[in-house]
Specification:
- Chain A is an all-alpha fold and 370 residues long.
- Chain A folds into two domains: 82-310, no CATH class; 323-357, no CATH class.
- Chain A is 73% helix and 0% strand.
- By secondary structure, chain B is mainly alpha-helical.
- Chain B has one domain (6-126, 142-290): ABC transporter involved in vitamin B12 uptake, BtuC (Orthogonal Bundle), CATH 1.10.3470.
- Chain B has helices at residues 9-37, 45-63, 66-89, 95-114, 137-142, 147-165, 167-177, 179-184, 189-213, 227-237, 242-264, 271-275, 277-289, and strands at 127-129, 144-146.
- In chain B, 55% of the residues are buried.
- The chains are: A mainly alpha (370), B mainly alpha (307).
- Chain B: One of its GO terms (molecular function) is transmembrane transporter activity.
- Chain B: Pfam families: BPD_transp_2.
Chain lengths: 370, 307
């Protein structure tokens, strides 16, 4: 958008004494994803109605199981914790124009790294163990996704395909380690690493009943927002994402930004895996590949890769996924029902891009002035 | 008779595996090749593959005909391709992101409708016993060739010929290399891409039907683990040439058969690592064939992944 245009719009808005261009834009940015969410839900309602299932019952059950009681809120927020961090693994690189969809791999390996630390040095006191697990998880996750960024920058390898391929490799690596080197001989039915020492387990936030991963996730979202919107690094990243050639001409270190932001996203995803091990499962095993990385993609797109918007989006999706069990029992629908709804919402979100800057009712003031 | 052929079993099993495992790769990568030559990338083929596997299995179960199942899978794939094509025709809609959404949507729909078909047994696609001349059961097993494998070979050559020698092929290539040039020639770029994506989707659907109706030959939620995505990566490695796609598919089939082949002779320790071999191989090829500084040779000029 040219400066002249911005000035003209701004003065028009001032004369009208109403919306400024920036406000109008902000409203549009908020309205579009919400409208897309609604459109996806309506499309899904039609789908359900065709199958003879009452859509209203479905959404009431989602509300009841996800947000209806204190207990369901606890459940939803516990699920939101890894989703917040998984979404950051998509949102941070997205600001540089990279589409990373293999966060699942970093989650899985971050969890394995935490389990490995507990297996190798179980004698450490609790706080040191937790710190070490967090560092290991973040480091492995950061290297994994940062590696995708490095391949992109150094070799021009497509990051979307590479990251998803690496997610499959990560899951195979986890199975190999958990069933081999790191296996606790006592875990018979479900191969796992040795159970964490009791002092290493991460507890709950007092009064909330949800583990500390939620606080770290929300903190991560806030810090990411500050990083992107309020620092020079974030500004440089947004320029690289907008126009790589212009960024290079400006002398911005595109390569360091690409590798740094992908590594940071991967570190968040690795932390998600570490919290799953240290706060939920108590050891690393195949439960780590629970699909949080894939839900994180939808959350990031729903939040338009804005760190602060990820928080409500993640809680919404967490509540939806938490209600899956009740929906299966009450409505006799398969567990993939939630996946179908997520697919429809995802398509609607992407479709809403086509309406960006074209919402007529927001620019009516400007037009009237002409 | 059960003659022990010892370690010879490994290359034989890899050959047999290459023939059995490669078929879905051939169909998906040839289809994706067609789509990418028109200037769009469809990452959603993973979802199409899974939905094709489910719909093919379901229709084959109800009608008793695996061929009707394959046809239904192709039709379902066509619809997914059309959906991708229509959505991407809208301004500012990103084809890669739509592909990811369709991956989730297609997989979700397949699991949703496929639940009742996990238990029932559907009739299989027929195979031709080309190993009849050998007394060894291992050779016979390796050379038991499915009809779709042969059809896939023919398809790859036919697609290459079509792209090179026909008016349709030229139209697709122009749309893929320069949308401006295509428009100057009066070609409706969006329509060309729509139908190229639809055709690619239909082929991916057939690939899915092969999975559920021949090898592994049953429907379950773990039927595809990234084959659709690997096939997309394979197109880059194959330099957007359908015949190269065929060769690359055979190579990948062999890599995929490595784990089970070694297992059959008693090497089981690194099972999961061998399972990861095709993914690592794909990644290795992507790294080797990509370049930061120059555009990839013979890449369609309009393709978003190489810009």
């Amino acid at each position: 958008m040219s400066m002249q245009h911005a000035e003209r719009t701004a003065s028009a808005a001032v004369r009208a004494g109403f919306l400024s261009e920036a406000t109008a834009r902000r409203i549009e940015t908020a309205i579009l994803p919400l409208a897309a969410l609604l459109a996806g839900m309506i499309a899904f309602s039609i789908f359900l109605a065709f199958l003879g299932k009452p859509p209203l019952d479905f959404y009431l059950l989602v509300y009841k199981a996800g947000f209806g009681t204190a207990f369901s809120w606890t459940n939803t927020l516990a699920r939101a914790a890894p989703l917040l961090l998984a979404a950051l693994c998509v949102a941070l690189p997205a600001r540089l124009g990279l589409v990373i969809i293999g966060g699942e791999g970093a989650i899985v390996l971050g969890g394995v790294a935490a389990g490995a630390v507990a297996t190798l040095m179980p004698g450490l006191p609790g706080p040191a163990g937790i710190l070490l697990m967090a560092l290991a998880g973040a480091l492995v996750g950061g290297l994994w996704i940062g590696g995708v960024g490095a391949l992109r920058h150094l070799r021009g390898v497509n990051e979307t395909i590479a990251s998803l391929l690496m997610a499959y490799v990560a899951i195979a690596l986890m199975n190999h380690l958990v069933e081999g080197l790191l296996r606790d001989p006592a875990s018979l039915n479900k191969p796992s690493t040795a159970p964490l020492p009791a002092a290493w387990r991460i507890g709950e936030i007092p009064g909330l009943g949800v583990h500390w991963g939620l606080a770290v996730g929300i903190l991560g979202c806030i810090l990411s927002w500050v990083l992107i919107e309020r620092t020079t690094w974030g500004f440089a990243a947004r320029i690289v994402g907008g126009n790589l050639r212009a960024a290079r001409i400006q002398g911005l270190p595109a390569g360091r930004l690409v590798i740094g932001f992908t590594a940071l996203g991967g570190a968040f995803a690795g932390l998600a895996g570490m919290f799953e091990v240290a706060a939920v499962h108590g050891s690393a095993n195949a439960s780590l590949a629970a699909g949080y990385g894939y839900t994180g993609i939808l959350i990031a797109f729903l939040a338009r890769h804005n760190g602060l918007a990820i928080v409500p989006a993640a809680i919404l999706l967490a509540g939806l996924e938490a209600s899956s069990g009740l929906i299966q029992r009450r409505m006799a629908l398969p567990d993939a029902t939630v996946l179908v709804l997520e697919g429809m919402v995802f398509i609607a979100i992407l479709l809403s891009d086509t309406f960006q800057d074209r919402l007529k009712f927001l620019s009516f003031l400007e037009r009237r002035q002409k | 008779m059960s003659e022990d052929i010892g370690l010879w079993g490994v290359p034989l099993a890899i050959l047999g595996g290459a023939i059995r495992v490669s078929t879905p790769f051939i169909f998906v990568s040839t289809g994706e090749c067609l789509t990418e030559r028109s200037g769009r990338i469809n990452l959603g083929l993973e979802g199409t593959l899974v939905f094709g596997a489910m719909s093919g299995y379901a229709v084959a179960y109800h009608t008793g005909s695996p061929w009707l199942g394959t046809l239904a899978a192709a039709f379902a794939g066509l619809l997914f391709g059309l959906l991708h094509g229509v959505l991407c025709s809208l301004p500012r809609v990103n084809d890669i992101a739509i592909g990811i959404a369709l991956m989730i949507f297609g997989t979700g729909l397949a699991f949703f409708f496929g639940k009742p078909y996990v238990q029932p047994v559907a009739p299989h696609l027929p195979a031709i016993p080309l190993g009849f001349w050998s007394p060894l059961p291992q050779v016979q097993a390796a050379l038991n060739v499915n009809v779709l494998f042969l059809a896939g070979i023919a398809l790859a050559f036919a697609t290459a010929w079509m792209l090179k020698n026909t008016r349709i092929g030229l139209t697709i290539r122009v749309a893929g290399d320069s949308a401006d040039a295509a428009r100057a020639l009066g070609i409706d770029v969006n329509r060309v891409r729509l139908w190229s994506t639809a055709a690619g989707g239909a082929l991916a659907g057939i690939g899915g039907a092969y999975l559920s109706l021949y090898y592994p030959g049953s429907w379950n939620e773990g039927i595809s683990s990234g084959q659709g995505l690997m096939a997309v990566a394979l197109v880059i490695f194959a330099r957007w040439n359908p015949v190269n796609c065929l060769y690359a598919s055979l190579l990948f089939g062999g890599a995929g058969a490595l784990g089970p082949a070694l297992q059959s002779v008693g090497i089981t320790s690194g099972y999961y690592l061998f399972y990861a071999a095709p993914y690592v191989l794909t990644l290795g090829f992507l790294v080797a064939t990509s370049s930061r500084t120059r555009a990839l040779p013979s890449a369609p000029g309009e393709l978003s992944i190489i810009k």
